[in-house]
Task: structure prediction
Amino acid sequence: MNSALLSRCRVLTLKALTPEEIGLILNRALQEEEKGLKSWEAQLAPEAWKHISVMAHGDARVALNALEVAVLATSPGLAGQRFITLDIAEEAMQRKALLYDKEGEEHYNIISAFHKSLRGGDPDAALYWLARMIEAGEDPLYVARRMVRFASEDIGLADPQALKIALSSMEAFHFIGLPEGELALAEAAVYLATAPKSNALYLAYEKARIDVREKGALPVPLVIRNAPTRLMKELGYGREYKYAHDFPEALVEQDYFPQELGSRSYYQPTNRGMERTIAQRLEYWRKKMNRM
Result:
């Protein structure tokens, strides 16, 4: 629809329901007498209620259909009640309940296994743990966010494309959704697992952050301060600043750190992937400036 037509319409944005909201709908369906299932005197086991709520993936129609199938497939007990177990709920949903608690220990165990498989360069194990999370009802965008973090923390500049791939997979999943969007996450997982690894960027930033926290807000050197007013120029802001592009190879020896810090070398690139090139470039620059 073009913008002119949209401007004359009321646009409603629909979002997937949360598992909690799906659970409320299930409870109402069991208690509703006229249009619901109250006459069947059915009761859901807590684990069956959770399984249907999560595996419906925000679709109330899927959840209600599964609930109806489960109720009809359950024989009444001695008191006439139908007690729906996890096994019955699994059969109704056609999805097995995997050992995975979003709020508990197993959640952190599995995301840890996924992260360590990526770091260790095992694409097959990474795919397995990815599938475990997705099949158990984990929010795929949570997994995508973890891969974005991994790309910066464990790969960094050894492969600058890793961050782009991780971000693209998150955008692709957000655009496509389940189930097709899972392949975008799988593609990113395999790329990250097989990329060269380096935590040099992570370590460098941690060192810089420690200096900031321990040394406080040190003043910016006058030579690299901005000088938009005449008074600032008279005070020495930007005086004797050396514009790098005015020098051969855009190399110039100049102090950029606060005077109280002196010189610092936070970033120590490895010899892996793109960082090998960066390390060679930095070494060349340092030798060149020492001769200036």
Notes: Residues 105-194 form a domain with the Zinc Finger, Delta Prime; domain 3 fold (CATH 1.20.272.10). The chain has a mean pLDDT of 88. Strands lie at 42-44, 82-84. The first helix runs from residue 3 to 6.
